[in-house]
């Protein structure tokens, strides 16, 4: 999802001003008591414009929902199965989970220090677009689950146009739900937590009880499969790691709701970390069950179902259509809710961009800063839906082009993790402010490990997954990501460089004014160099 690092110069040069009568700092029933999160927001140069209606359970549910453990594991299962088989799937899940937890710890520390709607990056066009693509991908997957259910009862598969039409409907429904604001999203996310827990239990029990022939432990933990054409065993297993990374992306979504969460500097970081922990536990139970009940990898490769995991259910459940429908419905609904949270994140990020004059004019009717009566940034929501529907049209013409666009979202997520981590590793003094959630002396070491793993995964994501490489099996993600990055960079030099000046003070002291900086000639050269580097990253 392409996140960008927090602005350093703006952080260090903020001038604290006492609240004035026009300031919109959130005040409790006792007017002398100010919510600590709103106070911190004011220190960062922003006014509180959203109701803080998210509790720990709610914001944890959002991150947990965004990860979508059942959906990621199911939708990408065949990718890992064909690249390393059970060996790569099981050990890749355990190894990647450790590093994704380290990334979550690093991002949580940044979120605790800068609990704003812009999240870990304050601003970031790459991340915003990646979130829109992620929501689009999720809604298409939901359409594929529904298509697979329909295909169980009809003689021929759905056409691309029919599947795209279902995807458009899910995109629009995602927008409608997001229009009802934080409270609706919080309730949906809380429901999704229980749905995932209960659904995992139902899937595990059903598969283990009904499956006639189960694999032994040797198959589950050591069996190697290779459908890629590559001869290098190690490289093939590493390709299978991508399934685990793809599944565990999304923990940072809690940061995008920081301005709608009570005690955000504490609860949002906790949500980021514990969503990974919870997802690992549920994921390992579900993954091991799938591997024990897998009947035939070849059957999954040659399936006629819209989504390959449906073939695993169909084979394992002895072609019992009702049980297959139940499994597909459990995962499909979870997939749809995960897509909703992606549009939740993208709309908040677009709002954060507009608030700092990095996305159009903020003072006109219908701008990205306009909130509806539910305090939802509805323009950003429906902009995400519109782009999602347009991208879904590509599925009709070419699945290769569509998959390239959506795979770029997965890479952009890792690139987004990489950007603030780079700052933490090479310019540690740039983010010298600490929040209640701090890694202490372990911070730099953890960030170095995160940097190395994330860089490695980003390279792995763009390598060809099949050999020999042809026009049909080429990994076009590098083209999509390269195009996205070039568009954003060109936008920065053509337009953004002249309009964006770091975070903009939106308090009553002067909406839309740049944060105060040191007078020319009085800056520390080293600090200025760091600030200029990070400031340019913020506009990307």
From TrEMBL:
Membrane-spanning parts: 56-77, 89-108, 120-143, 163-181, 193-210, 269-292, 323-345, 376-397, 404-427, 439-463, 475-495
Chain intervals for the UniProt region annotation (Disordered): 1-29, 506-532
Name this protein carries in UniProt: Amino acid transporter
Pfam families: AA_permease_2
Bilayer topology term: Multi-pass membrane protein
Subcellular location(s) per record: Membrane
InterPro entries: AA/rel_permease1, Amino_acid_permease_CS
Bias kind Polar residues: ranges: 1-15
Bias-annotated ranges (Acidic residues): 523-532
Molecular-function annotations in GO: transmembrane transporter activity
Keywords: Membrane, Transmembrane, Transmembrane helix, Transport
A GO BP entry: amino acid transport
GO cellular component: membrane
């Amino acid at each position: 999802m392409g996140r960008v690092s927090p602005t350093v110069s703006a952080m260090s040069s903020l001038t604290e001003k006492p609240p004035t009568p026009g300031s919109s700092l959130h005040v409790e029933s006792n007017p002398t008591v100010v919510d600590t999160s709103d106070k911190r927001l004011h220190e960062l140069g922003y006014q509180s414009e959203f109701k803080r209606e998210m509790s720990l359970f709610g914001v944890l549910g959002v991150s947990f929902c965004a990860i979508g453990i059942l959906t990621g594991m199911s939708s990408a299962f065949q990718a890992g199965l064909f690249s390393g088989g059970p060996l790569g799937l099981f050990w890749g899940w355990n190894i990647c989970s450790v590093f994704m937890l380290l990334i979550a710890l690093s991002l949580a520390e940044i979120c605790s220090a800068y609990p704003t709607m812009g999240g870990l990056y304050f601003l970031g066009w790459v991340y915003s677009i990646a979130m829109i693509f992620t929501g689009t991908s999720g809604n298409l997957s939901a359409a594929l689950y529904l298509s697979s259910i329909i295909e169980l009862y009809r003689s021929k598969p759905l056409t691309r146009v029919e599947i795209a039409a279902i995807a458009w409907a899910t995109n629009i429904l995602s927008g409608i739900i997001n229009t009802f604001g934080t409270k609706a999203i919080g309730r949906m996310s809380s429901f999704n937590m229980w749905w995932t827990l209960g659904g995992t239990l139902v899937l595990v029990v059903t598969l283990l009880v009904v499956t006639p022939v189960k694999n032994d432990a040797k198959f589950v933990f050591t069996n190697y499969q290779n459908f890629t054409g590559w001869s290098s065993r190690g490289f093939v297993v590493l390709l299978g790691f991508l399934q685990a990374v793809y599944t565990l992306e999304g923990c940072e979504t809690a940061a995008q709701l920081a301005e709608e969460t009570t005690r955000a500097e504490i609860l949002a970081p906790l949500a980021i970390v514990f969503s990974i922990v919870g997802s690992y536990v549920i994921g390992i139970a579900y993954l091991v069950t799938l591997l024990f009940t897998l009947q035939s990898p070849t059957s999954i490769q040659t399936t006629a179902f819209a989504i390959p995991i449906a073939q695993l259910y169909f084979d394992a459940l002895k072609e019992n259509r009702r049980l297959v429908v139940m499994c597909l419905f459990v995962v499909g609904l979870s997939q749809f809710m995960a897509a909703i949270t992606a549009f939740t994140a993208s709309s908040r990020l677009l709002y954060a961009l507009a608030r700092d004059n990095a996305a159009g004019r903020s003072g006109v009717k219908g701008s990205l800063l306009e909130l509806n009566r539910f305090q939802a940034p509805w323009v950003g929501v429906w902009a995400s839906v519109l782009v999602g529907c347009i991208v879904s049209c590509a599925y009709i013409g070419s699945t290769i082009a569509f998959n390239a666009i959506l795979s770029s979202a997965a890479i952009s997520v890792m690139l987004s993790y990489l950007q603030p981590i780079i700052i933490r590793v090479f310019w540690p003094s740039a983010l010298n402010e600490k929040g209640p959630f701090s890694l202490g002396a372990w911070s730099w070491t953890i960030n170095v490990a995160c940097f190395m793993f994330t860089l490695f995964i980003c390279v792995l994501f763009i390598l060809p997954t099949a050999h020999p490489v042809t026009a049909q099996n080429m990994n076009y993600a590098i083209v999509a990501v390269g195009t996205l990055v070039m568009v954003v960079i060109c936008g920065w030099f053509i337009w953004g460089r002249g309009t964006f000046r770091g975070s903009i003070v939106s308090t009553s002291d002067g909406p839309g004014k740049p944060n105060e900086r040191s007078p020319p000639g009085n800056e520390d050269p080293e600090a200025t160099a760091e600030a200029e580097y990070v400031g340019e990253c913020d506009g990307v």
